[in-house]
Specification:
The longest helix is centred in the first third of the chain and has 28 residues. The relative contact order is 0.10. Helices cover about 70% and strands about 0% of the residues. The chain has about 210 residues and is mostly helical. The N and C termini lie far apart (about 45 Å). The radius of gyration is 20 Å and the shape is elongated.
């Protein structure tokens, strides 16, 4: 209950709030630009124009194109986790949500290209996105491992499937499918292939 004496919590105000809103607008616009045009063709100028600012003004918030791209990928992860309930449940539900997410990914080829290009470049320790990708792969692998361990505890994981190894294999499969799909979108169905693989690991399938 709120009384006259109860302090009311409010969100950020003033310059900080404005700066935060501007950063979010830049990220949303960048996601659109890079999603439509891909990594190479998408430009900082194009993002800045969508937001209604100069390229110099954009660089005040993000020091480089690489820094912006890494932030865009993180923003995309946040949106997809919320949209598909990636963090809401483990086990079979988590695997089903992942298949739904991969199916949705096929509608944003530019973002898929962006992820594949950046992840390869970021293997160099000096790359601005190196730490982000390292953490993301660790988090994603841990997510699948937890899902498989939960299934195993329920007796729903097929005999001989080891959660840690299975989690690494799923992440590798997803990355490989993205590359094959970018090269030949007509012959590769990422969601169907992932569903088939995961169904083979789970008793009764997905």
């Amino acid at each position: 209950m709120v009384t006259d004496q109860t302090p009311v919590r409010r969100g950020p105000r003033g310059p900080y709030a404005k700066s935060r809103r501007t950063r979010q607008s830049i990220l949303d616009s960048a996601l659109t630009v890079f999603g439509e045009s891909g990594f190479r063709s998408g430009s900082l100028r194009g993002v800045a124009e969508q937001v209604g600012m100069s390229e110099a003004g954009l660089l005040h918030h993000f020091s480089s194109k690489s820094a912006l791209l890494a932030a865009v990928l993180e923003r995309r992860d946040e949106q997809t986790r919320a949209q598909f309930g990636w963090d809401d449940g483990g086990g079979r539900g988590a695997l089903r949500a992942t298949v739904d997410l991969v199916e949705h990914t096929a509608s944003t080829p530019g973002v898929v290209e962006l992820f594949c290009t950046l992840s390869a470049e970021a293997t160099t320790p000096s790359h601005p996105a190196h730490a982000w990708f390292t953490e993301r792969y660790a988090t994603t692998t841990a997510f699948f491992r937890a899902a498989f361990e939960e299934l195993s505890a329920r007796g729903e994981l097929r005999e001989g499937v080891e959660p840690a190894a299975a989690s690494r294999a799923v992440v590798a499969l997803m990355d490989g499918l993205q590359i094959q799909w970018l090269l030949d979108r007509d012959s590769v169905d990422m969601a169907a292939d992932l569903r088939a693989h995961l169904s083979g690991l789970v008793v009764g399938g997905l």
